[in-house]
Write a structure and sequence with these properties.
Elements: H1 7-10, H2 15-31, H3 37-44, H4 64-79, H5 85-89, E1 93-97, H6 101-112, H7 117-122, E2 141-150, E3 153-161, H8 169-172, H9 180-200, H10 205-209, H11 218-229, H12 235-244, E4 246-248, E5 255-257, E6 260-262, E7 275-277, H13 278-284, H14 287-303, H15 319-343, H16 348-358, H17 363-373, H18 379-389, H19 392-395, H20 400-406, H21 414-421, H22 425-436, H23 442-448, H24 450-456, H25 466-491, H26 514-525, E8 529-530, E9 533-534, E10 536-541, E11 549-552, E12 559-560, H27 564-580, E13 600-615, E14 619-636, E15 640-649, H28 661-669, H29 671-679, E16 698-700
Parallel strand pairs: 1-16, 3-9
Antiparallel strand pairs: 1-10, 2-3, 2-15, 4-7, 5-6, 8-12, 10-11, 13-14, 14-15
């Protein structure tokens, strides 16, 4: 009881102090007559020991109803701008949710049962690209979010999972997904085609021929080619032709992206070497097609008529020097952060010894190292250093005074010092700086190194280094292009503040969230218009009082994110994924109230998240699994859309080899459970959460 005041101290290194404090309280309680002297004396004889055993009690669990309530209460508080649950509990309010309670409970129960082998077998979850009989099913988390379009917005009907903790994996974590990024890439591709079309559609053939198109602006060139061939073509037909545009799926090309040269592979080797249209690549999830498409997108942002790289055509443009200075500053910071992490906890002697071990045992190089780090120390100390680090044979015939004078830093700048010692110049600078600024922070080191960072890269500014300059400038320009791409992705729901500036973003390098993918699917289903997510259909304040107020959700107008033609063409491509692609196992699974098969479309995605440690020469030292995830984001008919997720984390994630076929099959197995909701007409009364989960004055209906 006493330890609650300072638990981390009293139950840790202060455990003896806790015993003394307890004894003093026993004596005071006896003096005040709270306990008898006999009880005091008996208790004082007892020596309390601390248990060193780990707590083996099971982790607290959350039943699905309470978890749903917790999520809804958090959303309600945020919507009402209420800071705490305490404040929320003081409000006389009944909130009617959009959740279909019966289906919500049924889906939750079905997902919980999938950790039993028999139930997983009945659901069809064993097989190629899914589960195998030798894996533990209990760590796998399954989750379903299902929305229904309505006049008031996108109603959240189902938000269910089998994870017995408070975390919601749909909105609370970042997961690496491959092929769902292809959907975002395709949508932006269609957006750019649309932009070029709208700019040039009313121009004559003569006007089109006079447009200055950069050789790398392939998208503008293709649209103009189509307009020349068919001046009256409409946007929908053009976008369908854009999805029929062909790319190579060959992995045999190296791509300069993300600051280096990279190669990529297809999931299926059978796709290698093929040339295929975009819609087929989306259907079969072919990586190299989307790598090349992402290159086209980046090039368009760089080289369109007002593109951010058009100035490169002028060799004397002052922006060239500005970009080179910017690159030197950025790359120099990258190196300094790495070196600071290496030396921040080392004494000056330890840091110097670490450098000494990496420099060739040669008088000239060791002298340059010593003079770089200790430029003001006398020649006698250099002599002692060389005697300790070089053999007598190596020093034979050497004049230490001559070495001292020759390798003064007044004669060799920082770049030359690095060349002689074969140590990065900024590493030498940092060790020297920390030698005179023992407790300097990283921020202080970065500030102090502004000029040295520029000096180290002076070679880059030489007129003879055009190719090196071009690569470094292109690295920075590519980053700016990806800021433009990120802005487009963000507008349609991408949840993070930046993209990895690499073509690999097209195949999932930047991560995603299931809920964000569902948001994009909702925009596509709603003809390019983003509707608000509705979790509460009505709020009823102070019922039965003079202040009673009933607020029903008003019809939502929504915001247009992209043209309706983009949405329509994208839906057609997504239908192909279900009809004959990676999600074909769910084809024909859902029907309406009249028994008619509902059109389905969607996009699958699978990804491993690993921590990899690389050594010199590109040698992989360690690859540790963090998690594995697979999703299927989908629409069903004209009203429903959502996302199904399978996720497993931890060191054993590498034992699971399921792909997105798993969430696709789970969704199919849930058809009988979802059928009452899917088949209900929009005017049917929605079953709501019962009053039994009300907390104090706040009721969740």
């Amino acid at each position: 009881m006493l330890s609650q005041r300072r638990p981390s101290y009293f139950l840790g290194k202060g455990f003896d102090a806790l015993q003394n404090l307890t004894d003093s309280y026993l004596r005071v309680m006896a003096e005040q007559g709270v306990i008898s002297p006999a009880l005091r004396d008996a208790t004082l004889k007892v020596s309390t020991t601390r248990s060193l055993k780990a707590d083996t009690s099971p982790a607290p669990t959350f039943d699905s109803e309470k978890k749903t309530q917790t999520v809804l209460r958090t959303r309600l508080a945020k919507m009402l701008d209420i800071k705490s649950n305490y404040e929320l509990d003081r409000i006389d309010l009944t909130a009617k949710t959009s959740l279909d309670f019966k289906t919500q409970q049924a889906v939750t129960e079905a997902l919980h049962q999938l950790d039993q082998a028999g139930n997983a077998q009945s659901a069809g979850l064993y097989g190629k690209k899914m589960l195998t009989g030798n894996v533990d099913l209990s760590p796998i988390t399954y989750s379903l979010m299902l929305f229904e379009r309505s006049k008031v917005g996108n109603l959240l009907r189902i938000q269910a999972d089998n994870y017995d903790q408070a975390l919601d994996i749909n909105e609370g974590i970042r997961i690496d997904l491959g092929s769902t990024a292809k959907l975002r890439t395709m949508v932006h591709y269609l957006e750019l085609i649309t932009d070029v079309y709208k700019r040039y559609k009313n121009q004559s053939a003569q006007q089109l021929s006079q447009i200055n198109i950069h050789p790398r602006d392939y998208l503008s060139a293709w649209v103009i080619e189509q307009l020349n061939a068919n001046p009256k073509i409409n946007l929908e037909d053009l976008l369908n032709l854009a999805l029929d545009r062909k790319y190579s799926a060959s992995p045999g090309e190296a791509f300069f992206t993300g600051g280096g040269v990279h190669t990529f592979n297809n999931f299926s080797k059978g796709d290698n070497g093929k040339i295929m249209p975009v819609r087929q690549a989306l259907r079969d999830s072919v990586n190299l097609v989307f790598i090349r498409m992402m290159r086209d997108l980046a090039y368009h942002h760089l080289y369109r008529p007002e593109g951010i790289a058009r100035w490169l055509e002028s060799p004397d443009d002052p922006k060239r020097k500005e970009y080179l200075q910017q690159f030197a500053d950025k790359e120099g910071q990258v190196y300094l952060r790495r070196f600071y992490a290496r030396y921040k906890d080392k004494s000056p002697q330890e840091a110097m010894e670490m450098l000494s071990q990496r420099v060739l045992a040669k008088p000239s190089r060791q002298t340059m190292l010593y003079r770089s780090v200790y430029p003001n120390r006398p020649v006698e100390q250099l002599n002692d250093y060389l005697t300790d680090h070089l053999s007598k044979a190596a020093l034979a015939g050497e004049d230490v005074q001559s070495l001292y004078d020759k390798y003064s830093i007044e004669k060799f700048d920082l770049q030359d010092q690095g060349y002689i010692t074969k140590i990065h110049p900024l590493e030498l600078w940092l060790v020297r700086y920390l030698n005179t600024h023992n407790n300097a922070t990283l921020e202080q080191a970065l500030t102090a190194s502004a000029e040295p960072r520029q000096n180290v890269y002076r070679w880059l500014f030489s007129s003879h280094r055009k190719q090196a300059q071009q690569r470094r400038i292109m690295t920075l320009l590519e980053q700016e292009a990806f800021k433009e791409i990120h802005h487009a992705w963000k507008r349609v729901g991408y949840p993070f503040d930046a993209l990895t500036p690499s073509y690999a973003t097209a195949i999932g390098a930047s991560g995603d969230r299931p809920a964000a993918l569902a948001e994009l699917m909702g925009i596509i289903l709603n003809d390019g218009i983003k509707l608000p997510v509705v979790r509460f259909e009505s709020l009823h304040f102070a019922e039965g009082t003079p202040y009673e107020t009933l607020m029903d959700k008003a019809p939502a107008r929504g915001r247009r994110m992209f043209a309706a033609e983009i949405a329509k063409v994208a839906r057609g491509a997504l239908v192909g994924v279900v009809e004959g692609g990676t999600a074909s196992r769910v084809r024909g699974a859902f029907r309406d109230a009249n028994g008619q098969t509902l059109t389905m479309g969607g996009k699958t995605g699978t990804g491993d998240h690993r921590k990899e440690v690389w050594g010199a020469g590109g040698r992989l030292i360690e690859s540790k699994f963090i998690s594995r995830a697979a999703v299927f984001t989908f629409f069903i008919g004209e009203r429903f859309f959502g996302v199904m997720t399978a996720y497993v984390e931890g060191a054993n994630a590498g034992n699971y080899h399921f792909t997105s076929s798993l969430p696709v099959q789970i969704l199919r197995s849930l058809e009988p459970t979802l059928a009452p909701l899917i088949k209900a007409t929009p005017n049917d009364e929605v079953v709501v959460l019962p009053n039994s989960i009300a907390v104090k004055q706040v009721k969740m209906l």
